[in-house]
Design brief:
Radius of gyration: 24 Å
Order of helices and strands: HHHHHHEEEEEE
Structural class: alpha+beta
Number of strands: 6
Shape: elongated
Strand content: 15-25%
């Protein structure tokens, strides 16, 4: 059995075009590219789509068998598609509970009001008393956090951690920021909405929950250091 090389080439380009269109239409570009390079996605989607159409037009117009796909060219096309497989498989695995237990955080501006305190605000307040005072973050503060359960063991006894990944440029520089929750450990990677009050345990702020709800993963699971 022989395969027309034009069909294989057009198919590989079509897969990449579909990937770029998916990123463009779902607004997921910032997971992989910074603001200065986001233009690559719509540009690539359009150019590759046009190339696929050109291959299809040429194939239909010729109406004859084209060059046979060789093993060497097939290997090259396969290598061209390997990055897509890596992208499809790695992000959720790499940025799940396993990775969250191994990454750190940085500091944001003071929240508009104490009740709006984020994961980042709470973590910074643990070691920066000036920031904590300016932000109004202290024991007894009522907060609401939405995050996924991590597998971190670096939490006070009797607590588990929920976290969010923050990005400054793209998914490659994502850093997990977590806050301990008082209670038994749920299944890792479960998304929870936790409402409760802050308390001090050892050197950490923890949330003593009054309400814990299991929720679906948000449409945009990553937060930005710039907001």
């Amino acid at each position: 059995m022989t395969v027309d090389a034009r069909i294989a080439r057009g198919g590989a380009l079509a897969v990449w075009a579909a990937f770029f269109f998916a990123l463009w239409l779902t607004g997921s570009t910032d997971r992989f590219l910074g603001t200065r390079t986001e233009w690559i996605v719509p540009f690539g989607a359009i150019v590759l789509a046009l190339a696929v159409l050109a291959y299809g037009y040429g194939y239909l117009r010729a109406r004859r068998r084209g060059p046979r796909l060789t093993l060497r060219e097939a290997s090259g096309l396969f290598a061209l598609l390997v990055p897509l497989a890596a992208v499809a498989l790695v992000p959720h695995a790499a940025l799940g509970s396993y990775a969250a237990a191994r990454k750190g955080g940085a500091g944001p501006p003071v929240p508009p009001k104490p009740a709006d305190a984020s994961f980042l605000d709470i973590r910074i307040s643990e070691g920066d008393h000036t920031f904590a005072g300016n932000a109004g973050i202290k024991p007894g503060l009522q907060v609401r956090l939405l995050g996924f359960v991590t597998g971190s063991k670096d939490v006070p006894a009797g607590t588990f951690e929920i976290a969010r990944f923050y990005i400054s440029c793209c998914i490659a520089d994502a850093q997990a920021v977590g806050v301990p929750i008082v209670g038994p450990q749920p299944k890792p990677d479960t998304w929870l909405a936790v409402t409760g009050s802050l308390a001090r345990r050892e050197k950490r702020f923890v949330v003593e929950p009054s309400k814990i709800e299991r929720v679906d993963e948000p449409a945009q699971p990553y937060l930005s250091f710039r907001t």
